[in-house]
């Protein structure tokens, strides 16, 4: 049985979800971002228990098919932006999402905008902006290296996009004492 879970954005999320499901007595076959496979189907009462347990960790069990599809899209985007796999990042976003979710990109784009109130492109920009913030805080890469890592066509384009989202340049952000990063599940 597949369960779709909102707000899973990292490997720690996968660990917590696995632990909670196993604590409830479920045999977990796989845990991926946003998706869990149980060996046996869960009853309605068990699903309610799972939902309550997950909510305690700010996860949400999704039952609506549209929400499930949107969560798959979000998860794919998070993987695309935050994983260090160069092959993924160099692939066109629309092709990657259509392949990953196994749906037509135009349909995904329309549905995403309808459900989330923003476009897929804006969601990607928001994710990339948070990734840039993260990398600036770590202070291990130059801005040019960050632009290349996140597949920006130029450093100027990264700076322009960053400023349009945050209201400041990457250099101004780097000088702040209180770095205003958002958790991935709040994007």
Count of alpha and pi helical runs:
10
Strand percentage, roughly?
5-15%
Shape: globular
Structural class category: alpha+beta
Task: Give the total of beta strands.
Answer: 4
Radius of gyration: 18 Å
Low-confidence stretches: none
For the terminal residues, how far apart are their CA atoms?
28 Å
How are strands sequenced across the largest beta sheet?
2-3-1-4
**Can you summarize the main beta sheet?**
4 strands, antiparallel
Helix percentage range: 55-70%
Order of helices and strands: EHEEHEHHHHHHHH
Question: Mean pLDDT, rounded to whole units?
Answer: 89
Explain this structure:
The structure is a single chain. The chain is an alpha+beta fold and 187 residues long. The protein is 60% helix and 9% strand. It has a 4-stranded antiparallel β-sheet, sandwiched between helices. Strand 2 (28-32) and strand 3 form a beta hairpin. It is globular and about 55 Å long. The mean pLDDT is 89. It comes from Runella salmonicolor.
Short description:
By secondary structure, the protein is of the alpha+beta class. The protein has ten helices and four strands. InterPro entries: Homeodomain-like_sf, HTH_AraC.
Layout of helices and strands, plus pairs?
Layout: E1 2-6, H1 11-23, E2 28-32, E3 35-38, H2 44-55, E4 60-62, H3 65-82, H4 86-90, H5 93-101, H6 105-116, H7 120-138, H8 143-149, H9 155-166, H10 170-175
Antiparallel strand pairs: 1-3, 1-4, 2-3
Helix pairs in contact: 3-5, 3-6, 3-7, 7-9
Keywords: DNA-binding, Transcription, Transcription regulation
Protein name: AraC family transcriptional regulator
InterPro entries: Homeodomain-like_sf (IPR009057), HTH_AraC (IPR018060)
